[in-house]
Amino acid sequence: MGEDVDIRDRKSLEACLKDQPREVAVWIAARAAARVLPVWWQAVLTEDWALDRDLTALPELRALLISVVCVEKPTVDMKAAATAAAPLPAVADFSTYFDETTLTAEAISKANSAVVADLDPIDAAADAATTGTAFAHATNVWEAVQADANAVQDGTSPDALSLWPKGRGPLEEEWQTIVWQVINSEDAEDWQFWTYWYDALLDGRPMLGDVGRTGEMLEQIALIDPAIWDKGPEAVNPVIREIWELHRLRAEVAALQAEKAAFLVARASEVQRRHNQPPDGLVDDAPEVARQITLIWDGLDEAREELERDAPDKGVLRVIAERMLAALNAVVAYCGKVGDAVVMSAAKVGGGAVGTAVLDQVANNGRLMQFAKDLLAYGGG
Description:
This protein has 19 helices and no strands. The protein is mostly helical. It folds into two domains: 10-227, no CATH class; 248-378, no CATH class. It is elongated and about 75 Å long. It has helices spanning 10-17, 22-35, 37-46, 48-51, 58-72, 76-84, 101-115, 121-132, 138-151, 172-183, 188-203, 211-222, 226-229, 233-273, 287-307, 314-338, 340-345, 351-363, 366-378. The N and C termini lie far apart (55 Å). The longest helix is centred in the middle third of the chain and has 41 residues, at 233-273.
């Protein structure tokens, strides 16, 4: 595109996309459809016509997630998943009987169809964007589409870009109402992934804090057996939650290991500056506590190795988690017993200063404790 484009309506969008790679139009179509998702989701949670038919947001969520993932990974398997997700059930029959709400589901369906070349992606993008103007101020919608178009001038889509260029858009109130309803539902745990996913999409950030890990997770979810998807949320949401929990643990253990490594480098530098003992001397006055800290850090290494397997052994993970929690509790108990003595030792120049820093890093690291608890829960403990 070169210079920034000016998109103010359907015609100018179509003109902008006509010379662009197909993938650009598919990406813009998927994001335009994603912006109106809250309208449909709120409808299936509150409208009588949806409640009477036991509709859920799952078919639209499935189609939208696959559309988003397929832009980055247009593999044969992903296109097959997109084909299996369309046409969306319970959409076609509604457009003549109900209000414009159903247009949002149709916009998502068209974006999904564009992935597998069943529909011109330019038409899909234009339809989705035009649908958005029915529920949000037209200026907001076209500004968002224009921001997308300007972000892909080189023909590739960015790894992360918020859905709306200003804040979280004109449907934020509706979205927060949906989140509240989901949180307070009987099956809140099974729908939590979807609210987290859409929140991340709104903010333009990878769910797991890492683009690669997030993409791997979303691809695995998109490729869940269509037969499981077709059985509805009761069947597929627990499978999705299992995948999500595993990938979250993988991301967290990697982050904790990096945190530990950075801490030890900093401690080593401090010790060397003070011409003190070697940096591996931990808590000299409490060798048993030092042993417990070693167990915790070894546990991180063991957990990461097991979690990175294609099929982690939950029994092994449970044992690792139990050992880590026991060691963490022992360190916390030691800190409570010595109390101010530990704090006072920080003022010393010697082994005590190193020991105090290590104790603080372990005993007061709520993230480390939470990881051990989450690992135990995943292992069935």
